[in-house]
Amino acid sequence: MRFYVGTYSVPGSPGIALCEMKDGRMTQLANTEALRNPTYVILDRARQHLFAVGLDREANGVAACFAVDDKQFELLATAPTGEGNACHLALDQVERTLYTANYPKGNLAVFSVDAGGAAMERIQLISHQGSGAHPTRQERPHVHHCAFRPGTDELFVCDLGIDRIVTYTADPTNGKVTQKSMIPAPGGTGPRHLVFRDANSFYLAGELNSTVLAYALEKGEWVLKQVLSTLPEGDYPDSTTAAIRLSGNKLYVSNRGADNLAAFDVDQAGVLTPAGHIPCHGQSPRDFVVTDFGFLCANQISGTVTVVAPDGTLLGTLAVPGAVCICPM
What we know:
Blueprint: E1 2-7, E2 16-22, E3 25-32, E4 36-43, E5 49-55, E6 61-69, E7 72-80, E8 86-91, E9 97-102, E10 107-113, E11 120-127, E12 143-148, E13 154-159, E14 164-170, E15 177-184, E16 191-198, E17 201-206, E18 211-218, E19 221-229, E20 240-247, E21 250-256, E22 260-266, E23 272-279, E24 285-291, E25 294-299, E26 304-308, E27 314-319, E28 323-328
Antiparallel strand pairs: 1-2, 1-28, 2-3, 4-5, 5-6, 6-7, 8-9, 9-10, 10-11, 12-13, 13-14, 14-15, 16-17, 17-18, 18-19, 20-21, 21-22, 22-23, 24-25, 25-26, 26-27
């Protein structure tokens, strides 16, 4: 299995690293330092282009496209995000438009992408307005995640700073978006990332209060159905959630501070039931992916990628300073 790791630019960090796990052992095969702080990376469906957000050498926020082949990275194009480091990105269904979530100033950037990825142009920049209950983390909007509702042209955008999921409709001809609605979260939640169960339900990770929230579409309105803690018993005042993943009838949310994955059973109606916690064997699991053999966890502060079995057994560790995201091939 091969996978990409994005990193914060700390001493020893590889930028974007291509890694491999084979016969129970992980190794780094190649890397590129073309971007500083490449905090999120995604592949196109053909696995020929890797899209990333980060900083250029002048510390300007950029979205970038790389051609990837075996162990090669070729930087094809970059375009300014309109501010500092973005933290998430998504492609539309036909992969001709890229969307980035820009955390510092709370805006959403839209980019046109040519068919070969050799040219990108920012065509829209939308700034959110407002604030939230938390005195230091919600002083202004902080856009953190963007994802399309399955089978639709609706883009859901998590804003940690204003406790809202802002929905947009994307124009199929040019990718530009117009605001459709706002879905509220309880005050102080800090919406970070979401994952869709299907077109009519999704789960949200609340960063600031370490919760997972279940929403369902009822009579044309999004209704909050459940709010559950992601933390184990004990005192974890500084813990925050990070990534959220759905795999079959299991939902997982990573806890930075408690340093584990909260597991939930998902029944046929989409109702969540707590199902324990799985240690990540690293400090501050910012991202993870679910695999056939368990989990790959990107542990930012300890600077490691760990392989963890479903029962919590540590199967392997690879040093990747500043590891913040994982993208499987």
